Amino acid sequence: MPSPDAPQILLALQLANGYGAQPGAWRMPGTDPSAYTDMDVLVRYAQTAERGKIQLIFLADTPVLDVDLEQQAPHHATDPIVVLTSMARSTERIGLVATSSTTLNEPFTIARQFKALDIASHGRAGWNAVPTSIPAAAANYGITLPSRQDKYERAHEVVQVVQALWGSWEADAWVRDVEGRRFADMSKIRPVNLRGRHVASAGPLAIPPSEQGQPVIFQAGGGDAGLEVAARYATGVYANPFTIDEGRAHRDALRAAAERVGRDPDEVKLFAGFMPTVAASRRAALDRRRILDESVDLDQRVRYLGSMIGLPLTPAQLDEPLSADQLAAARPSPGDPRAPHALDVAQEGWTLRDVLAHGVIDYHPVVPGTAADVADHMQEWFEAGACDGFSLAVDVYADGVDTFVDEVVPLLQQRGLFHTDYEGTTLRDHLGAPAQYGTDPRLS
Amino acid sequence: MPSPDAPQILLALQLANGYGAQPGAWRMPGTDPSAYTDMDVLVRYAQTAERGKIQLIFLADTPVLDVDLEQQAPHHATDPIVVLTSMARSTERIGLVATSSTTLNEPFTIARQFKALDIASHGRAGWNAVPTSIPAAAANYGITLPSRQDKYERAHEVVQVVQALWGSWEADAWVRDVEGRRFADMSKIRPVNLRGRHVASAGPLAIPPSEQGQPVIFQAGGGDAGLEVAARYATGVYANPFTIDEGRAHRDALRAAAERVGRDPDEVKLFAGFMPTVAASRRAALDRRRILDESVDLDQRVRYLGSMIGLPLTPAQLDEPLSADQLAAARPSPGDPRAPHALDVAQEGWTLRDVLAHGVIDYHPVVPGTAADVADHMQEWFEAGACDGFSLAVDVYADGVDTFVDEVVPLLQQRGLFHTDYEGTTLRDHLGAPAQYGTDPRLS
Ligand SMILES: Cc1cc2nc3c(=O)[nH]c(=O)nc-3n(C[C@H](O)[C@H](O)[C@H](O)COP(=O)(O)O)c2cc1C
Ligand SMILES: Cc1cc2nc3c(=O)[nH]c(=O)nc-3n(C[C@H](O)[C@H](O)[C@H](O)COP(=O)(O)O)c2cc1C
């Protein structure tokens, strides 16, 4: 049992399109096929997560329709601000975080909308500041993607202008003195007047401080350039390491980078993407995943698995394991960090259907198993220093969010790995993030 | 009594900063001085308006802090999308309309956010498409204001791209066929691929139709160029005529312009700005206005009145009427449509304090009086063809919205001038606006 003030796991719940992290989620029994547009459904998931004391909801976002809707639901929310505002109105504690592109949006728009969300939620908003890497998203804004260097140069400018706008009111500028006839102290509200190579803004923003001062910055992906953004500005970082070693390397690099810019490395938390499928037994969890796999595009999945391990696999072999000859001929794709694990699972003798049900081709590590299996995995990663918490991609929200909250959360709590109540009322409280107003003085 | 299917008055309730249309509203008894950031308060006003069957809430907006906050509250909401989404979650019928600048925003952002609001509100969203005319707002986006011609050229492009994005899903594209394994019919979801001189977008939007198909377009102000935008795209037009003649001229011009582009003129509704102050008697209404005037900047107001009627007035004369000599010397400012009315009121012998309490320097026509006085004014304007409805700027929301709903609305209903229930569930239903999906085929 860890000591009472040892660090504990932080949890983010990804709630993307309203159905679940698996492409077939929209077709599952219990799922409302209209959940994508039904704020009532989305709000219920947020409430369930809050019941489980999960620190925050995370909506990844790219402003593009980049999926074939014949079989699958869109990847992202109709609009993150609309969805998170809906959640803010019906929850009280849980943090509300979404991506907004530093490549496609003006800093004034980002600053205003996330600060307004921060106000509406009484200090629970966070912004995941990422450049956009999908050309079709840029085309929706009438531009072609800038070079990687320009994108990251702009990302730095956008975050700095946004934070400066957030800081354009001092913490006590909004006096509201009815007797004294003074609405605000204008000497404590200042313009920004920043001009960079890519963006500029005069300011001030017309929004006073929230209960947490200003929203929390998150960052995701992007190699060294992304690490630099994260190290300078972020409180939370989303990553998708596939192994403990990868997670540890990323987290160590992040902490070192934060230290280089003068921050306490404990101020930056790495959230590892993780896809749990919880059921009464491992077999039941695999069966749940099989139904999901079969609900959309199983044939494609077999071929994809084949290319990952260097074998020409076809659906005809779905109910058989790999033969000894196949195992001998297999060559895990060197560029794919998931490939060795896929081959390991295949070597255990599972049928191809079950190999896939292990989630070996998914874009997050997958654990199909009991609540204890899932908690064990999280404990192992956390205690090995592979992450500070997890960004949960629940397979099917309709029942999966409840199951996680009712079965996995109590286990983590019993093990002293997860808090039993929110530490405060704001997202900064939940993350132990220091108060900040405007740009971080250590960075200027 | 008008015949049952005669046109009736349409009502929009302006809910700007949460306090009221008068600068001193934030200091009034009963007003929560934190209403600007308190969604609960704003939501209550929207619910009251809905109780009164008011057709829509309107949030004017310019993304700039253009007021001295020492004495006054900001003019606009923290963020219109956040505020309207909050209202959407706690109301069921009332329309939700806000301004978003065609000069400063990308069409993809506008299309996505208003359509997401339309989805969240089950078909109640509207967008007031106006170019920005305040240089400081442009500076918040790092640009200088384009020429008037470029601004309006861009406005046309932005509205067309937004409507095309809204129409990128056909009405029945979202099949959600669980058994048939078909989420959507991709043959009915098409890219936009529009490129103008100012903006461009590839599309499609990732959002299916709402209950009203797509949001309703509004327009405001802007002379001939604005009229052209309104005539082509708008269902509702906000205007601030100061007299019946002005209103009639604007409405006639608008209807003629709509006809020229092939639309039925009845499809375009003019909302005249109107600022009622309702009390038990005219004297009581004037006293209410006096308290409001005195709560902020009465001295300035006296001097402003003086410049309007060509006299050097000072606060020393506040409790006296204009002398005969002053009345003889007065010269109403020729460029100000409010000036003749101001002089008329002064000639009735009111003290300067009471002249101001008549609202003669306000930016809307003001009626301080009983509910019947207010209803009479509205009836007169409406029956004279000066407008199709009113955009209500209520002096102090804390009690003024309830008073309007409880006292004026029933009078209008008794006179057969205002509906007694919503005609349907969507904003298009409330406005009698024809169904539309994508750009209006008559305009292409
Ligand atoms: C866990 C995780 C979450 C991400 N979330 C988003 C997102 O919400 N929106 C987005 O456009 N990109 C997202 N990305 C992509 C990265 O921001 C980045 O674009 C990608 O890693 C490519 O980086 P590059 O453009 O620097 O090459 C995410 C990446 C990771 C690893
Ligand atoms: C009733 C009314 C409402 C308006 N609402 C807005 C608004 O919400 N935001 C805004 O920036 N301008 C608003 N305007 C200003 C006009 O859109 C326009 O900018 C102004 O009339 C000047 O026009 P011009 O730029 O064509 O000269 C409004 C004007 C009127 C008459």
Features:
homodimer; 444 residues; alpha/beta; TIM Barrel; eight-stranded parallel β-barrel; two-stranded antiparallel sheet; 12% strand; globular; binds flavin mononucleotide
Describe the structure in brief:
Chains A, B: This is Flavin-dependent oxidoreductase, F420-dependent methylene-tetrahydromethanopterin reductase. 2 copies of one chain form a homodimer. Chain A is α/β, with parallel strands linked by helices.
Q: Given the helix and strand composition of chain A, which structural class is it?
A: alpha/beta
Radius of gyration of chain A: 23 Å
Number of distinct beta strands of chain A? 11
C-alpha termini separation of chain A: 42 Å
Mean pLDDT of chain A: 96
Protein name (chains A, B): Flavin-dependent oxidoreductase, F420-dependent methylene-tetrahydromethanopterin reductase
Organism (chains A, B): Sanguibacter keddieii (strain ATCC 51767 / DSM 10542 / NCFB 3025 / ST-74)
Keywords (chains A, B): Flavoprotein, FMN, Monooxygenase, Oxidoreductase
Family (chains A, B): Belongs to the NtaA/SnaA/DszA monooxygenase family.
Structure description:
Two copies of one chain form a homodimer. By secondary structure, chain A is α/β, with parallel strands linked by helices. Chain A has two domains: 10-168 and 202-279 and 370-431, TIM Barrel, CATH 3.20.20; 285-357, no CATH class. Chain A is 39% helix and 12% strand. In chain A, a hairpin with a 4-residue loop joins strand 5 and strand 6 (200-201). In chain A, helix 6 (223-233) packs across helix 7 (244-260) and helix 13 packs across helix 14. The longest helix of chain A has 19 residues, at 148-166. The mean pLDDT of chain A is 96. The interface between A and B is large, with 69 and 69 residues. Bound molecules: flavin mononucleotide (2 copies).
